[in-house]
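Provenance and format

Records in this collection were gathered into a single text stream. Each protein contributes a sequence line and a token line. The two records reproduced below are adjacent in the stream.
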Amino acid sequence: MTTGRHRVVVWATGGIGAIAIRTISNRPDLDLVGVWVHSEEKVGKDAGELSNGDPIGVAATNDADALIALKPDCVIYAASGPERDALAIPDYVKLLEAGINVVTTSTTRLVNPHAYEPAEWREQLAAAAKQGQVSLYASGIEPGFAADYLPLVLSTQSSSIETIHSYEIGLYDDYGVPEIMINGLGFGQPLDYQPWVAFPRAIAGEWGGQIRLIGDALGVEVQEIRESFDRSVTNRTLEVAMGTVDAGTCGALRMKAIGVVEGCEAIIVEHVTRLAHGVAPDWPTGIGNLSYRVVITGDPDIDCSMAATLRNPGRAGIATMTSGAGAMVATAMRVVNAVPYVVGAAPGLLSAVDLPLTIPKNAFVTQPVEQK
């Protein structure tokens, strides 16, 4: 890790970007020098106000060249959308070629850059990193930790391992993006509707990188990645952020990406997603509205559950409290806290296992205790 103050640009001011902006503003080792926005109406506005807080004296812009000219040490890339890879890869290449490190939550399949496809894009990124002598690190989601890095941390206690099973179990009742909730996942639709996630290779493509990262780190070959997808209807009408979900339509889904090792289903990433707690009661349940669990069978058996909750949404840069607010902060911090380590790393495409533990050096906030 390099020491000193690092100049940082945040790319986009959505949920993750806003959280990153608020955190950087409070970190003495990070200096926010610029913010990129997509929409014209945000151009010129103060980044602090765009991130649900007070002005901080940094105006947002949609001029990428102007941000590159600021010569930041690192860009925290948090743009999202249905075409995130196709739009993000050219941005990454441009930034890397300019000698700017990139940490990103946008391209989840880059958590394991060695397995990233299409190979043409991977080669472009590797060449750009070599030209600029900088690095790219993608943390992914869940929240960039629970389905890939946490199992490996837990495996340091293992004598032998038979299976690793990672879960995300949560409510998506407050997630209101129709193109994802309906077109992508099929919520509120009859069970004969085919959402994007039900198409062959969609699940494997989304979480295969995490599975192969675990396999590579543990020194085993993942021979194939299988998929499992199931849905359950709600027996009552639900009013959620995406709108009205009628009784008899999809109110929960369960999907698995399954890594096969030596003919056995050995590394599994599973998502159980509901619009209400009572839907699909026989499926796995978690802690509260959103939690993560890793189960390692072997010697010894290990079972670890984790929930990220939030007490102060305003300080974090979140306008309203949601079920996943804590996980959003955790996701953003996986890249914010990685900045000094990525800046100090050897040039190239990095995964979490290529970096040391990305411990934040300026995150402690103590609360005085009243003396009795």
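Adjacent record:
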Amino acid sequence: MQPAPEPKKSSRILTYDLMRGYFLVAIILNHLYWYPNGLDWVAARGGLFVSAAEGFFLLSGIILGIVRGRKLLNKPFTVAAKLLVQRSVQLYITSIVLMLLFTLLGRWFFIDNPGLKPGIRPTSQPFIDVLFGALTYEYIYGWADFLRLYAIFILFAPLALWLLRRGKAYIVLLLSILVYATLPLFQEFTRYSDELLMPVTWQVIFFGGFVIGFYTKQISARWQAIALHKQRYLKTVVFTITIVTLGANILLAFGGGLSDTFSYLHKGLLPYFDKESLPPARIILFGIWFLASFWLFQKFEPQIMKFFGWILLPFGANSLYVYTVHAFVIFLVHMVMKDASSNIFINIGGTLAVLMIIWLALRYKVLAKIIPR
């Protein structure tokens, strides 16, 4: 992998921010789900075997590995560890507050609204039970539930950082894989759903990114040391696999109207690409698609920046803020318009309005002192 060089006046890597911004836009569009809206191509209506969420998590791990890992090597370990724990606590509190707020709003004002997101605890359940469920993450609700994953992963990040500082990256990766491999045990011996067990599976993406971020310069140097003709060959292989698999995925997901065979094959393959349990096939496909996406964003960075930088860059650089704000906006707009309209122009107008609301909230720093950035 050949990351873009760091800007001279900033420690941020532009390609990463643009990609995170793109993944966030895709997540927002899929949560809104007002299709067709002319932007269907951005996220394929969430119908792919790999989602934007994986890319968002991997990039978050990479950036954390750079900012709290590599860039603080000259600082004592306790400095970096303290910052990580503080961030984890901040996200834990934020996730709990949001879950409770969405639950209370839903139970008090929107319980009979068809646009209310499913999964809310019934009004007959005592609030103390709801509170305990939220505090223990046995109850998750709302459109910002991924914050709980960040809170958990970052809490364990100091251990990974301690090992990385001692050159034990292989132990970090081995431990991550071992935790991932325990999923069948949790499924058999606990009552938790695959959604509640996502910390067990999705950590492999986050900590994989954390290791990549910590060793970004070394990875870049090794890539540069590869002969150019070999680089071109590897890129050709990755892009070819991406084009073929992406095309096949789109055909299977949306070609049901052409042939029942497509629907049958798509249904049969879905268990191997489940989003919550994150089977190996999905991880492998994600890795290939992500690498192709990275090279595309890197190659066309000036053009992407020129035409879409106005929204992708601020979204990517303030990802947690945007993710949190989007949760409120999606929650509320679904109370007005749950399903897509039959009029594509209404869908386009509504979708663009939602994106602009979030963009304006970021530009004018609405609740910026409260919402994590």
